[in-house]
Amino acid sequence: MNRLLRFPLLLLALSCTISSSFSQKKKTPFEPAELVNPLMGTDSKPSLSNGNTYPAIAVPWGMNFWTPQTGTTGNGWAYTYAADKIRGFKQTHQPSPWMNDYGQFVIMPVTGKMKFDQDGRASWFSHKAEVAKPYYYSVYLADHDVTTEITPTERAAQFRFTYPKADSSFLVIDALDKGSYIKVLPAQKKIIGYTTRAARSNPKNFRNYFVIYLDKAFTFSRTFRGNTLVKDSLEMTSNHSGAVIGFRTTKGEKVNLKVASSFISFEQAELNLQRELAQDNFDQTKEKARNIWNKTLSRIEVEGGSEEQLRTFYSCLYRTLFFPHKMYEVNAAGKTMHYSPYTGQVHDGYRFAGTGFWDTFRALYPFLNLMYPSINQEMQAGLVNDFLEGGWLPEWSSPGYADIMVGNNSASVVADAYMKGLRGYDIEKLYEALIHGANNEGPISAIGRKGVEYYKKLGYVPYDVKINENAARTLEYAYDDFAIYQLAKALKKPQAEIDLYAKRSQNYRNLFDPSTGLMRGKNQDGTFQSPFNPFKWGDAFTEGNSWHYSWSVFHDVQGLVNLMGGKENFVKKLDSVFTLPPVFDDTYYGSVIHEIKEMQIANMGQYAHGNQPIQHMIYLYNFGGAPWKTQYWARETMNRMYKPTPDGYCGDEDNGQTSAWYVFSAMGFYPVCPGTTQYVLGAPLFQKMTLTLENGKKVEIEAPKNSDENRYVQELKVNGKSYDKNWVDHFDLMKGGSLKFDMTNQPNTKRGTQESAFPFSFSSKQ
């Protein structure tokens, strides 16, 4: 045969062989953990937040996280992408840089000259030699020629350090300042210690105890006090305690470290280590953590998007699964216990910490109620303990009561969980806590209700009585009263009590200014604040202006529509948010705070997605008969404001809230009013998404024609039947089924325009 003819036949045969061999291979298992970028949002600084995140190496809701530390001790920006040196590897519980950290300590390998202070031990690193996964972190420390690897469990972790050939290899354990203790036990290859460092809430008798084991004997052991190395004691209690251990290493030698901690005792830390690490080696712990992440993330399986969209989605989903983190532990008898920051003692039961309800009531907690209700059931039981031990529900726990932000949004968190079917905890005690918080000022302004006597008497917190952010407080109190009203009805409380909170839920009306069509601060005598600049940030509002807060009537959008002059005017007002220039008045703050700058540079007018108050606003078009505008702007925001990159958020991520907005919006619906069972419709981002609910049911969300151009809903079929509402119900989703969206590139200006299609509003009682 001619050689030229034979060659194509050989290629054909080879092609068939390869094709056959591929077809016989099993389908690659779905591993969403590999799509997550823990560095998303880390390219941030105090003046501009692209997320203000750090790479959290942990398991979902773990008690402890680990992160490389590039910032100095006490700097809330623990890891910033632009940094070029690592000072150590920190156990952290930090909710946000603005809240800072509690219970942290640092581990750092060093070679050559023995340096233990944070600057001396620091090493250059490159992102090119860095691997960040939810379950695993690795980085090459150039100055020490050491590769550090970390893999986590809930309360413990394993480290693996690959050292060079050196006579002087070290490991620094820094328990940090503000009061700490350390003890080196060379015969046991063990270090124990505790840190008392806590930035925000002055928790009583606070200690984070840690236990560390190495698999290599020490040939050098020292403790240090501040910047002074101590030669005559292997035990140190001081303001700033630490230890340095040393040994010879051969080239490529791996030194393994096991570490666990406890907020209860050294004995409990030891138990946590033995229970969670047992005899596992580093790779076994890593595989277990990887499996946990894949299983947890796989509860939502996405198909049909670009790689960038998939990475963004799972990176956001990862961020929703951290806070609040567990602060409970299990003792030797198998009993759940926790340290209380309120009493300084150990109590029975669950406890969680590290979240602010002002942020997370909006979407994070509703997301847990939909996809991970069992963890929120534990969280609700933990709130019972907060009330029993501290006398109040927290509004920001870090780990105790932190005096920051406004509102009384624990009411929303409690009511939404119960209304969506969560049970198995003392709801009567939580209701008691809500009534107590709604009618009393707390010992600090951020628990209970600041200005509550004015609110009860006048129906608003006045502008001229020296209570900051008074209009924001009023609007949030009114919504929180609605949440209490919902729970009171569900618990069959006396009608007079139900009616009281129903009436108070309408207090938002007291701040509506007909002359501007916006919410405005009001003086004690009933006159509106003057002069009034709707672009002024702060003052009567919280981290926003009137254009942001005027939409904070989650429970009665129809009432707001009526105040604004009907549907047409309402929709025009919504449109104005995007068409107005991003002007601002920063005189209240005296400088351009980062939230202002993030709105200004986003090029979306007055829409400030980087902060929470306005994040639900896009979905309000459904209440004005223009759902296609929700569909357009939700997609626009997902496309423009989120990327799976270090600068991938458009403001503070905030404990999963901004991520939960994306996850919900990608599903095609959003919980505008927690405390009801409705989700307001947008349009899905992907061609297919499968939700596997905890009850075993599946919800399939399909949009086969979905594309960037086809962002509008022509028709929705629910379980095969045409569906014309602008909302779906939680309990219908709980039954499983399908939502099939017929997507098109042109708005359907007829679907969802009738009031019978609109979501719930208190005024319409639909």
TrEMBL record:
GO BP field: carbohydrate metabolic process; glycoprotein catabolic process
Pfam families: Glyco_hydro_92, Glyco_hydro_92N
GO molecular function: carbohydrate binding; peptide-N4-(N-acetyl-beta-glucosaminyl)asparagine amidase activity
Keywords: Calcium, Hydrolase, Signal
Cofactor(s) needed by this chain: Ca(2+)
Keyword DNA-binding: no
Signal peptide bounds: 1-23
Region of interest (Disordered), residue spans: 744-766
Known partners and oligomeric status: Monomer.
Name the record gives this protein: Glycoside hydrolase family 92 protein
